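[Solved] Which block belongs to which protein?

Original post:
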Amino acid sequence: CWLFCVLVTLLSLSGKSMGSCPTKCTCVTNSPPFITACSQQNLTSIPEDIPVNTEELYFSKNQIHSLSQGALSRYENLKNLLLSNCEIEVIEPNAFSGLIKLITLDLRFNKIQQLQAYLFSGLIKLQTLRLEDNDITSIENFAFQGLNLTRLNLDRNEKLRDISGKAFHSTKVEQLRISNSSLSSETAEALVPLKDSLRELHWQNNQKPLRFATEAFVGFTFRALKLNNNGIKDIDFLEGVVTDELSLDDNPIGPIDFSRYPNLRQVRKLHLSNTSFSIVLASYFNDMTHLSYLGLEDNGISSLSEDLRPIFMGLQYLLLKGNTLHCNCELRWLKRWLTAESGVNINNGEALECVTPSVRTITSMDDVYFTCSEPVIVTISRTLNVSEEEGTSLTCIGEGDPAPTIIWSSPNGDVASIPPPHSRTLTENQGIFHIRSASLHDRGEYACTAVNLAGNNTVKVHVNV
């Protein structure tokens, strides 16, 4: 949009040049930047009488279908070339020869199917190459040979299945976008030649699930690595990742203990929304001392331990919307922290809500509503008879808020501890103690104890052998 606005402003100020200008085009040639605008004119070819001093050529929304060899070679002063929405299907070799000053090449919304070797050869000053929204199926070896790009955009080429291993040979790219394609995980190997230059990789919404090799990103130093919605389940590749920003939104990865990945200690922005990251432990993030942004939306999180407070206080942004927070005594600390001047932008200003035991805004609730209930044992057999060498099980069900830990202790000193479910919407926990082959050594009193933050309750069972 900004290019169009600039163009309109320049044309209104400078007017149409008295020199040569193609029919249906408007030219500004009496003061730089020298512009020729021919967009939306139903042109089927690039006119031959475009002023040779043109620096910016706006040719979008025409029907030229192909770019022939040397079609633009006369315009060696071109810096910006916009050919989007031109129904281009074929680009012949050397179509861009001679454009040694070109900085921006926009080929969006065309019907290009293949990028052949050396297609952009000679564009020594090109910084931005836009190829999104085409029909590209493959990219051949040496397609980008010699380019030194700030930005390469291949987004929304949904038929793109193959990037050849040497497509980026002798190429530098700072930001690469290959989202909404049909690439395989092995495509990461084709990116290896970009290790020294690539700082941002946006590879999102892939049409097939991705499973990266452990060494896929070893040697890269990213400013941002965004891998959202790629069906990623295996995260071993994180061992080799070095980045300031990591985005894994919308992948079914579950909780991640980031202390296992020393290379990620420098991460500043971490996006983990809608990833089934339902358990949030402080130990996962303690080593990430530079973390300033943490996105944990829509993860089914029901509780947050108070030992997360130091981590949250070190953030600038914390996103927790769309979770199923259970506001019992365990979240009283969070309410107090939210109502204090924490200096942290939480949910971009939107209120954080409890889902259970009632739907209310956390900060609107008095402390007395954040309560826990002492556990009770609701199901247990008081006496059990078993024959020698028979197997049996002792079942104890405890109920409380939060659901209690169940601890079984036997007369011979064996102890079994059954932790509660992580979801705070569940108030019961079942603990089973197994006697595999009963002997006289197993007879006596067994104690079942239910324990939570509000207290404990013990019931004893007598086993006769």
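(Second protein starts here: sequence line, then its structure tokens.)
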Amino acid sequence: MLQPKVSQKKDHFLNNKNIRMFLVFLLMSFLFWLLINLSKVSTSVARFDLTYYNLPHSKVIQNAPLKYLKLELKAKGFKFLSYQLNREPLRINLDHIRHLKGGKYYYLPNNYLRELQAQLTADVELISVVNDTIFLDLTITATKKVKITPKLDITFKTGYNFAKPIKITPDSVEIQGPKAWLDTIKTVETEALNLENLSENINQELALKIIQDDKFKYENTQVHIKIEVEKFTETDLTTSFSVINLPNNYQISTIPQEVTIKYQVSLANFKKVTASMFIVQCDFALSEKEHLNYLIPQVVTQPDFVTMVQVLPGKIEYLLKK
């Protein structure tokens, strides 16, 4: 029952001509007042972001310096309003810095008001800079060549393996930056590359995991990685072995006198492998040191194109004679 009455009063209020006229004049009065005040010249403080240039040779800013300055300006209100909406950063010329001690430097902006004024529009007068000093922490730059380490997670399809060692081009990267920080960098990793059931060659660009900081400059930010894959087969051969570090005036008899070498080799290199390419030795001194009553055969020389090398048996019985 009350809602119709409220609605009628609302409609009556909005339809009242005198009230509508009053609101229009009120709005116009406010706009005129605003225009008058924005047209007046006044003094106020505006904040400007900073950029730095003309850094001294072989120097780099170590810690983030002051990011903004507060300027006391004399200008019309319209100009202050535009500065709040859109303003270019002030450029600080580091040719004017003074040395304090160690890597500490400072810049006195009020000593260079003319240079800062030149970056403002002609209808704005720079009175002073509220921040009287900008402190900077500079350090010596250096250059260092660092090895690149690929971050790879590779699984092969059954019967496949590396045909050659992984090739990375370039294999190192030159970095320029603060010397104290560079001394701690030993290697640069690539972004992760995961390859599953690999059975084909890979030629791919990989990005380096670089330090996201303007203080560091990299010679390059990516590398080329080449992975050659071949089909492998498992096979074996029989060969003799020798015993080293025998005591003087002793002879040794072993059981067995030969060992079997199991290995994997690519089909392309299968026919290249001969028993003479493998040298197997048993170190008598090692068995003595470990108090073992048997010898351990170890492959000391093998072709560089075979993998997964295993010697059988893993223990050699022996008889020592004087």
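Accepted answer:
You had them paired correctly. Confirming on the second one: The radius of gyration is 40 Å.
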